[in-house]
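Hi! If you just cloned this repository, the fastest way to understand the data is to look at a raw example. We've pasted two of them here, unedited. The first protein comes first, obviously.
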Amino acid sequence: MQKNKSNEETPLTSEKIQPLAYFIFTTRWLQLPLYLGLILAQCVYVYHFWVELIDLIGAVMGNQAALQHILDAVAIEGAVRPTKINETTIMLVVLGLIDVVMISNLLIMVIIGGYETFVSRMNLEGHPDQPEWLSHVNASVLKVKLATAIIGISSIHLLKTFINASAYDEKTIMAQTGIHFVFLLSAIAIAISDRIMSGTSAHRQTQGLH
């Protein structure tokens, strides 16, 4: 008799919990404004990219206003301000443009991958423009890709520092190199952890089949 009573109470308890669980699950849509905000940030980066690119082209073509803007952009406090555009100046501007692109790529991964993982499926299977990584995206894969993107961004900033090494003291250069090395170790640790977790999950699934 006790066993039957327990079986009768279980569905009732489940019915009481289900609306609360559904409400909690629905709150994932609160993240939608965050991803829309990141799309607006992406628009700002696109605008900034084209402003810098147009000024670079204008400086090369002899536009004085564009030249002054470019020289101000690459000038470093404590170093001699460049007076004309040269190979180093162009390289620094282009590295800045690449930096914008890489941050933009990072935003795309967060927006698409985060929405797909935490909010709702996009159902892009079979679409010719579907990113290859989106087919198997999850929280672990997203963390690895974000860590890799951050390393790329850090590499660009470190390269810009090395180009202007004479304008920085040894302590600053060593600090930036150390930070980049920490980013690298963090990405390796995340990748190894993800590999171990994936291997453990696959092993459990194999044991379940047997």
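Ok, and the second one:
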Amino acid sequence: MNFTAHPARSGHAPPTETRARPASRARAPFKIVSWNLLRRTGAAVDDVAALVAREKPDLLLMQEATRAIGFLLDRIGGHYAWAPLPGRIHGLAMWSPKPWPAPPRVITLPSGALVHRVCQILDLGDFGVANVHLSHGQMLNRRQLRRIVGELPPRAAVLGDYNIVGPALIPGFRDVGPRQPTHAMVEVLPLRLDRCLARGLICHEHAVLPRGRSDHRPIVVHLGPAPEAHAPGRFKGMAAAVARLRRGDGSAGRVRRDPPG
């Protein structure tokens, strides 16, 4: 179930001057913070509100968020969506200071024996964002990732608590988030569980933040579209052009077979 706070609509179109800006003007990177709150005993609404005030993210992703985190709207306003895990008191949540183009979708993931998992997917127009809290099983959580990336647009980022040890090995995606540990298992073994994988995007900055009352440290990334030469779909277009030549008179193939000179 997805609970979304819908913004009030003014009925007015955006100012035309925002559409008339020169195409060469670069857009500022999009700042995303992701934090596993640690349900009930961890970070509360006051802690989340303080993080927002300090970091001023364009998008905040949360894992292990309980229903009580929804009171964030009363504290700081904005726009909020909560997707509880089936049969659990906690789940995934998103907060933004600005309205979304459309409410985030919730998809079900391959489930383990005890916990059924879901994923929130938000389409921002320029790129998509998936908010995840994956299972602990190292084969299962990678299956869940493959299910998620199949739902994403060409430019996309997957952030959250991966519970993955070692590389994720998802074709087309790069691990662009911070490399410092974000969680200490039984306060002894440091692990980098909170990550950001991206496709068609560049991470301009990243950091690991103080953990506060949670057992996870938040991560922050500043994302922007990759240049066209590196964007997904560019190579598909080139391959399609070559295929059209081959389907023609086969000249592309003959050029490769002719001897030099």
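That's it. A detail worth noticing about the second one: Residues 33 and 220 are 4 Å apart (CA to CA).
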